From TrEMBL:
Transmembrane segments: none annotated. This is Zinc metalloprotease. Residues 127-270 form the Peptidase M43 pregnancy-associated plasma-A domain. GO terms for molecular function: metal ion binding; metallopeptidase activity. The keyword Zinc applies. InterPro entries: MetalloPept_cat_dom_sf, Peptidase_M43. Pfam families: Peptidase_M43. Keywords: Disulfide bond, Hydrolase, Metal-binding, Metalloprotease, Protease, Signal, Zinc. The keyword Protease applies. One of its GO terms (biological process) is proteolysis. Belongs to the peptidase M43B family.
Length: 286
């Protein structure tokens, strides 16, 4: 993951250019405790992404006055793929059933071999990634804890990793805006947050309990730790008010509603000539 200042190359892509990313959604229905994910639920998630990344989400007006000038239209949109890797028509939605959960794509440490991550391999009961130089892969898979409740809403790969695992993984209870949904994840913001990581954003707080560990974005105030739930502004740490309503914190969906201009710059930098997602940009720009 690059931590370099992206501003030097940003002018290569026009600031007002809208980048449209094809999406394939891999739905893995967990047979022992199935949670249905309808086409409508998937479309509701795509709609949320297109609001959040274009500053069209109505709740962005809730941004506190001191931060309003930072709110950005990132200029990125998402569309379900209409052509598969072989050039055939597709809905952009793939479905399978079995006993693979989202945990079987979670790399617990650096010693875990990619080949052991069954989620990403059709022959092992999961679903193969479509080429990440042409698509954003989203796997919707069960991430329950041992009690059957939501254990983790989602996780993502950063740019530059193994193409076989490139994408975002989200539990169905944190996906889209249609039920079933976890009470803290009802507005589809888990995908917004995780795709932020996929586009090279770090958490707004950088690293917990460390005011010096930032997110390499100039306009996001340093924060000592993450926020959860629905905090009320102002909250302070590290000598300034915290931007907990940013999509890259851990607050509930209804409490997050903005990216900053600096985050926009960092995300769009992945598509520049030396950026890790340049091949995707070149493909969608043809």
């Amino acid at each position: 993951m690059s931590c370099n200042d992206p501003s030097e190359e940003l002018d290569i892509i026009e600031e007002d250019e809208i980048i449209v990313i094809p999406v394939v959604v891999h739905v893995l229905r967990y047979t022992p405790a199935p949670i249905d994910v309808s086409d409508e639920k998937i479309h509701s998630q795509i709609a949320v992404l297109n609001q959040d990344f274009r500053k069209k989400n109505p709740d962005h007006v809730n941004t506190p006055e001191e931060f309003k000038h930072l709110v950005a239209d990132v200029g990125i949109e998402f569309r379900l793929a209409t052509t598969d890797p072989k050039g055939k028509p597709t809905t952009g939605i793939l479905r399978s059933e079995g006993e693979i959960t989202g945990w079987e794509g979670f790399k617990e440490n650096e010693n875990t071999a990619v080949e052991d991550l069954k989620l990403f391999f059709t022959e092992k009961g999961g679903q193969d990634a479509w080429p990440p130089d042409k698509y954003l892969n989203i796997w919707v898979a069960d991430l329950s804890n041992r009690h059957g409740n939501l254990g983790l809403p989602g996780y993502a790969s950063f740019p530059g990793g193994d193409p076989r695992t490139d994408g975002v993984i989200i539990d169905p209870r944190a996906f889209g805006t249609l039920p079933p949904l976890n009470e803290s994840h009802q507005r589809g913001r888990t995908a917004t947050h995780e795709i932020g990581h996929w586009l090279n954003l770090l958490h707004i707080f950088g690293k917990n309990n460390d005011c010096e560990a930032g997110d390499f974005v100039e306009d996001t105030p340093s924060a000592y730790s993450q926020y959860n739930g629905s905090p009320v502004h102002p909250q302070s740490s590290c000598g300034s008010h915290d931007l907990f309503m940013n999509f890259m914190d851990y607050v509930d969906d209804q409490a997050m509603y903005m990216f900053t201009k600096g985050q926009k710059e960092r995300m769009r930098a992945v598509f520049t000539p030396s950026g890790p997602r340049r091949a995707l940009y070149e493909h969608i720009s043809k």
